[in-house]
Structures are given as C-alpha cells and as structure tokens.
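Dear Dr. V.,

Thank you for agreeing to look over these. As mentioned in my earlier message, I'm a first-year student in the group and I'm still getting used to reading structure tokens, so any feedback on how I've presented them would be very welcome. I ran two proteins. I've put each sequence directly above its structure. The first is here:
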Amino acid sequence: MHDYVYPSIFLAYLMFFLFVAGAIFFLIRSRKDGYWGSQSEDPKYQMLHDGLDELGDRDVKNSGGESQCQQ
C-alpha cells in the first residue's frame, strides 16, 4: 500500500510558496515601476483624455470637479 499524503502536502506547500512569491515579486515590481507614487493615476487620465480627443469633447469634469484636460 502506498502513502500518497506526503506528495500532496508537498505539492500544496509548493503551490502556496509559488503564489506568495509571485505576489511579492509583482508587488515589489509595481512599487519599483512607480505605480504607487503621487503620479500613479496619470496613465488613467491620459487614456481618458485621449478618448475625449477622439470624441471632440474637451471640457469634461471628473467627480471632484477639477478639469483633467491639461493642454
């Protein structure tokens, strides 16, 4: 009779370690790439600004009331 408990436990811990290591890796990488800084939302507003340029509407306000179109 074979005992299959140990391989499944090792596989479970290996998968847990890989997921945690991947999460930590991407967490550090996103911090290093500047996704947590004061300018972290600029790509979103640039994308929205580019979409407004295509529609021709340049005077759109965000929910805070300040204009995001900077020209």
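The second protein is here, in the same arrangement:
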Amino acid sequence: MSKLSAFCVAAILTLPIFGAVAEDAVSSPPSVSELFAAAIESAETQAQQRWAFSVTVRNLTDEDAPVFVRRFDPRQPEGERWLLLSHDIEALSKDERKALEAQGDDDEADTDLIYDGLSNFAEEVKLVGDASGLATFEFKMSDPEVPKKMVEAIKGRAVLDKKGGYISLVELVSTKSFKPHPAAKIKLFRQTQHYIKLVSDGPAVLADTEMEISGKAMFQDFSQHFRIEYADIEPVDAPPFQVNK
C-alpha cells in the first residue's frame, strides 16, 4: 500500500492489513467481528478519496535534528504538491537540506492516510481481548512482496474502537531478529499507527506513525526512532491516484 521512505529503513514495512477474523479466539458477541469487518469496508469505500494535510517529522534519535513541518496538497501540479511551512527553504544549511530531501516528496503521499484494502495482507487474525469499548486483534503478516523471514518475525496488533466503529491503532512488532536482505540485520522493529475520525460519519484517518528500528547494515550498527504527526487533514477534489490501491 505504500512506498519506501528514503529516510528510514523501517518503511520497508508500512501499513498492516487484515484478513477474516477468527471467531474462536475469545468468546465475544458476534457484533465485535461484524464491527471489525464494517470498519474495513467503510475505509474501502473511501479508497479513491484524495486528502490534503500537514505533516511534522520528528527525529527522536537525535534531539538536535531539525523538525520540519510541510503541507501536502494533491490539487497542485505534480512536483509542486509539497510546501515547507516551518522554514525558509532558501535559508537551509547543507545538512538541513539533506535531512529535508531524505523525507521524500511523494506526489501521492495521501495513499496511506486511510486503511483501505486491509483484508488483503494478513492472515490468522484473532480476537484476543474485548473490554472497555475496545477490541484487540492479533494477526500474522501475509505479503508475497516481503521476505519470508521478515514475515515470520513480525507480529501484528490492531485495536477496534467499538463505539466509533473504526480501527484506532495498528502495530507491528518484531518477535525476533531478521534479515530483510543480505546486507542488513534488523534486531528491533516497531511501528505504531494511530487513527482518528474527523467526523462521526467519516473515515478514520492516520493521526501519527511512530517507528523504531535498530540493527546492523553494511557492517555498521544503527538505531533510528522517529514520529510522523498529521494535522489539518481535509478531503479535497483532485486528480485520481496513479498508483494501484
């Protein structure tokens, strides 16, 4: 569902996606699994909606790293859809420019703002908790484009807000080290995504993503931890997506 992010190896795996819910994991009313399915179906009806939003990227590994705030608007021409709000781009230092460029300028950055298509990329989804208005599900990844060892190392979790009828949290966590390719070994991977509803009858949209990853690449140890925060999200009329969703 999403493209690689140049500034973090963690983006080799992004949005988790869900399959059918196993009914026998935890005794619960049928409405729980029905709500879960309905939340996914609701997102799928919004698959082609375009979105404008502001985004703030925080490097939690380096407290001295610049914090950039940018605005994405798909109504603008290709190559002109990103606007830097927090800095004067002409006044950036060489290192600041490099950090900004590493964040990328995807012309279809709103592709991943909602969790449409969630039924395609997970298996063995099980209800494991149901309390206080929230239902928690665990799942295994199922993605032919992801290396088998990586799929085997990742465990997923999703939280359903039963009252709101949407998935409020999606998390991927490594249960063991893995090698996504021969030159890299990931010792820790964690990605947590929070979703919110802007209006009661609208789709849930991504509020923030936090990623933490550590390991070794090209014989060098590395550790990265960052958070992406989304704000001022609004549906807009814009040209349709060029990528397959």
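From my reading of the second output: The chain has three helices and twelve strands. The chain has one domain: 39-236. Does that match how you would interpret it?

Kind regards,
E.
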